[in-house]
Write a structure and sequence with these properties.
heterodimer; A: 477 residues; alpha+beta; nine-stranded mixed beta sheet; 15 helices; B: eight-stranded mixed beta sheet
Chain lengths: 477, 485
């Protein structure tokens, strides 16, 4: 039987606010345990939450970028359960009235097809702390630095049909939140993670099967593997006549398997109710418009503009707009270089290669956009050839200075003096009488050999076009 | 000296007739000798009080004193006080020393008051008789076999017995007004949002409001002026300007429309009580007020509504007392569940447990709509009744309690009869309105309270009504005799 997967994702994006969602503590990652938790984060008797409005602005930005409705009035609710890393015994989240709902994002699939994925809702909530179960001699340690960190939980419609689509969707959201500058997207630090709801059904059937929720997937690779694994598990059960239990499962990347955490019967009754300590979040049309005006150019728009304004291919435009930082870098290079394709090739080729090799990203590139533009300018004005430029690039990467410094210091300036090149050609012809004779008797292929000899004699610095032109004339005799 | 009101003491301090240190010593001595029979205090902070008095006297000689500088008061033990045990009347917090001050404490400190100590209260403010306290019941200074009311029973008894000129309290369903009535003093619950809740240990967040227990409306006005006002640490604290309430006490009631609430004065009210309330209404009329009849048709639903909303919020608010970070922790927990279960079983008393269970039930899946959601809708209806009534009247009038103080143990076995003690006071909490109880007579030698309710943020008019009444009657000057005289 052919099976079809039905997948919906709940993505948790940690918002880039300086302080927590309901307190003034810092949200910086990596501090010593419990040094970034104040009385509000610790849930002390008598303390009260106060909403960080910066988080609301970020949620609105996300809502507008996903064509969603931004709720004029949304409400924080308490989700009640006991856990040591949840200091108040409840998590403040949004339940019945989320700040953002009913939007979509278009994702590009490998076969070039664009698919629209519905976004059911996105709501604001506070993160819990961390329980540390190792190194405490049978006890557990609690670190509350993360408690109260703002999260935007983005819930998709069950519109995804393959693991590939799920990954493409997650990547699209990942790209978007970084474009919007509302989340750093750091998956290792847990700033961007997701839960996946997965069910399978016979191809062609309309009803959904029973789903399982896979918790805490924090890499693109894990999510793909976890979904494939979970679908296979469900299909095996169904094909051997069993039925799926609705439950929450945890993915173990080391064993590449999912295992049950709790079933529906064991699920908590969270006893949601509106948090009486917080007023409803009221957002006016004017406030929404103000956010809209400040919205940056989004990936799709930018990609379209790169194609139309710079004449790039769809493929190049997509690569260059994969992150806002890369796109900004490219635009800065292209601003002073007239051959936009040349700029694209260098950013996607030599620069990306060098970054990869050294494990850097575009923000920490050793060559600035201005410096790269300077190098490409020297190609365009004929000072150096494209081939020499690669040498100059390497020297610049190694910290030898700007393009002009390297060209000067290493004497790499292209030879464009006709007389000098003619003299070298004379020498090459004199040194290769046999080849000259063969060439003149019709063996045209030897032309390349002479070019090579001339370039070798000039250490690659002769202007290739001029060499071609003069050789053709002089070899002909 | 202890028979003086707060305002009078303020005048004596300003005139240099007494120092803060002298006053503080005097009241500390009274607490030491008389409180053993009342049990009004959980913690007496004598050393801190004397240090604060010295500082207050210094401020006064430096010309930096305000009207409250050097005046001793007591705080209900629900307000967090830095470096001082803050128990909330519970074993759960018997070991808890707050690392910070509540906004109310901070503001009164800034005004220069001297805190004598922390007063007894029903556990987590859940009770109407002060019998649910882990620290034992408080006794009524008018009759030691009777309750002082609750939950601010310690503050009420301390002020009534002249162990402190004034005290802070909190009122979620009547916890300031009901004990004030039962011990014959003046209790003010301001508008919800008038005073910050920051640092006040939460019982039911949408109902809790800090207020005052004093000997006169004038004293309440002085304290409220210092306590009230916007606090960025409490989102529900409203940014409305704070007038000088004491300066606004003209005593003139000309043209004031006083609404006699039909449902307050029906057959449920006992005869002698009713006479006292009706006499009080006549006094106001004689002072120039116009009496009109108003109705609050949904008021009968206020007790059941309250006993859904308040437990629901309390069940969540008290989840933080889990034995993990502060407060009571059981000995040698076997595992996490054991830690939670035993810490909470041991730390909380029976009434608190009853309300946590009730609240958990009404919020549970399948019951939420029938209880919590419905209660919130009824709450809207009750608020609408009040809105309508305030179209016809400026201040509403009725009794504070159905009866005078009852005997210790009289209602402890039947929670519902205990809950019905708050039948007249709960409406103001559900609608967020300011309310006061002022002494208006005696039944069987026990004080009776007149209940006044005003519209949102209309504390000025409320206080002036009470003030005019007190100027005309003097009931508020009556003190318990015998040992407390």
């Amino acid at each position: 039987m052919d099976w079809e997967m039905v997948i919906g994702l709940e993505i948790h994006a940690q918002l880039k606010t300086a302080s927590k969602i309901f307190s003034a503590s810092s949200t910086a990652y990596g501090a010593a345990p419990n040094t970034q938790a104040n009385l509000v984060d610790l849930g002390y008797p008598g303390v009260l939450p106060v909403l960080n409005t910066e988080a609301v602005g970020m949620a609105v930005r996300f809502g507008l970028a996903t064509h969603s409705t931004v709720a004029p009035r949304s409400v924080f609710a308490r989700k009640n359960y006991f856990y040591p890393d949840l200091p108040k015994g409840y998590q403040i989240s949004q339940y019945e009235l989320p700040v953002v709902h009913d939007g979509y994002i278009d994702i590009d699939l490998d076969d070039g097809v664009t698919k629209r994925i519905g976004i059911t809702r996105a709501h604001l909530e506070e993160d819990a702390g961390k329980s540390l179960h190792e190194d405490f001699h049978g006890m557990s340690g609690i670190d509350l630095n993360r408690a109260g960190t703002p999260l935007l939980e983005i819930v998709s419609e069950p519109d995804l049909r393959t693991a590939g689509e799920a990954v493409a969707y997650m990547k699209a959201i990942h790209q978007l939140v970084r474009y919007l500058d509302i989340c750093d997207g750091n998956m290792q630090e847990g700033s961007f993670r997701c839960d996946a709801n997965i069910s399978v059904r016979p191809a062609g059937r309309h009803e959904f099967g029973t789903r399982a929720e896979i918790k805490n997937l924090n890499s693109f690779r894990y999510i793909e593997r976890a979904i494939l694994h979970e679908a296979e598990r469900q299909i095996d059960i169904l094909e051997s006549g069993g039925s799926i239990v609705q439950e929450t499962r945890l993915y173990d990347p080391d064993k590449d398997e999912t295992r049950p955490m709790r079933t529906k019967e064991e699920a908590n009754d969270y006893r949601y109710f509106p948090d009486p300590d917080l007023l409803p979040v009221v957002i006016s049309e004017a406030e929404i418009e103000a956010v809209r005006r400040e919205l940056p150019e989004l990936p799709d728009e930018k990609r379209g503009r790169f194609v139309s304004a710079f004449g790039l291919s769809e493929y190049d435009a997509r690569v260059l707009t994969s992150s806002r930082a890369l796109a900004d870098f490219y635009e800065a290079v292209a601003a002073t270089v007239s051959d936009k394709k040349l700029a694209a090739n260098w950013v996607m080729g030599d620069l990306s290669g060098a970054l990869n090799k050294d494990g850097l990203d575009i923000e920490t590139s050793r060559i600035s956009a201005g410096a790269l533009a300077g190098l490409l300018g020297r190609i365009e004005d004929g000072t150096i050839s494209g081939k020499i430029a690669k040498q100059v690039f390497e020297a610049m990467w190694a910290g030898e200075g700007g393009a002009d410094d390297v060209i000067e210091a290493r004497g790499l300036k292209q030879i464009t003096d006709t007389g000098a090149i003619e003299a070298i050609i004379e020498e090459v012809m004199a040194a290769n009488p046999g080849q000259l004779e063969q060439y003149r008797s019709g063996k045209d292929k030897l032309f390349g050999y002479f070019v090579g000899q001339v370039m070798k004699a000039t250490r690659g610095q002769a202007n290739p076009a001029l060499v071609n032109e003069l050789l053709k004339k002089m070899l002909a005799g | 000296m202890h028979q003086h009101t707060l305002s009078e003491l303020s005048g004596l301090l300003a005139g240099g007739e007494v120092s803060s240190v002298e006053l503080t010593r005097h009241f500390l001595d009274r607490v030491a000798s008389l409180d053993p029979s009342l049990n009004a205090f959980i913690t007496v902070t004598a050393d801190q009080a004397l240090a604060a008095a010295v500082e207050a006297d210094r401020r006064r000689s430096a010309g930096e004193a305000g009207p409250l500088t050097g005046v001793p008061i007591a705080h209900k033990d629900i307000f967090c006080t830095a470096g001082v045990k803050t128990s909330c009347g519970s074993r759960m917090l018997d070991s808890f020393v707050s690392p910070y001050d509540a906004t109310v404490v901070e503001r009164l400190d800034a005004a220069g008051v001297v805190c004598l100590g922390k007063t007894n209260m029903d556990e987590f403010a859940m009770g109407s008789s002060n019998e649910t306290s882990w620290y034992g019941p408080v006794r009524n200074p008018w009759d030691l076999e009777r309750v002082p009311g609750g939950s601010s029973g310690g503050s009420a008894a301390a002020v009534s017995a002249r162990l402190a000129p004034a005290a802070t309290g909190t009122d979620t369903g009547g916890s300031i007004r009901q004990p004030a009535a039962l011990v014959g003093i003046t209790g003010l619950k301001p508008t919800y949002g008038r005073v910050s809740r920051y640092g006040m240990i939460a019982f039911a967040s949408s109902l809790d409001q800090a207020g005052t227990l004093t000997r006169s409306a004038e004293d309440a006005a002085l304290l409220l002026t210092a306590m009230a006002g916007h606090d960025p640490r409490d989102s529900t604290c409203v940014d409305v300007p704070v007038p000088d309430y004491a300066a606004g006490l003209s005593g003139d009631l000309t043209g004031l429309r006083v609404g006699l609430v039909r449902e307050f004065l029906d057959d449920g009210l006992d005869g002698d009580n009713r006479k006292a309330i009706e006499a009080a209404a006549s006094v106001l009329q004689d002072l120039g007020a116009e009496l009109v009849e108003v109705s609050l048709p949904n008021l009968g639903l206020s007790v059941p509504t309250y006993y859904v909303v308040a437990p629901a919020e309390c069940s969540s608010n008290l989840s933080r007392f889990d034995g993990v970070r502060f407060g009571h922790r059981c000995e040698d927990p076997r595992d996490l569940l054991d830690l939670y279960e035993r810490s909470r079983s041991e730390g909380f008393g029976a009434e608190v447990k009853r309300r946590i269970l009730t609240g958990t039930y009404v919020l549970s899946a399948g019951y939420y709509d029938a209880y919590y959601l419905k209660a919130q809708k009824v709450r809207q209806l009750i608020a609408a009744d009040f809105r309508e009534a305030f179209g016809r009247a400026d201040v509403l009038l009725g009794p504070t309690t159905p009866t005078p103080a009852f005997r210790l143990g009289e209602k402890t076995d039947n929670p519902v009869t205990m809950y019905l003690n708050d039948i007249y006071t709960i409406g103001a909490n559900l609608a967020g309105l300011p309310g006061m109880s002022v002494p208006c007579g005696f039944v069987n030698d026990l004080p009776v309270g007149l209940h006044l309710i005003a519209d949102h943020f209309d504390e000025g008019r409320l206080l002036n009504t009470a003030h005019a009444f007190q100027q005309a009657t003097g009931w508020h000057r009556r003190a318990p005799e015998g040992a407390f005289a």
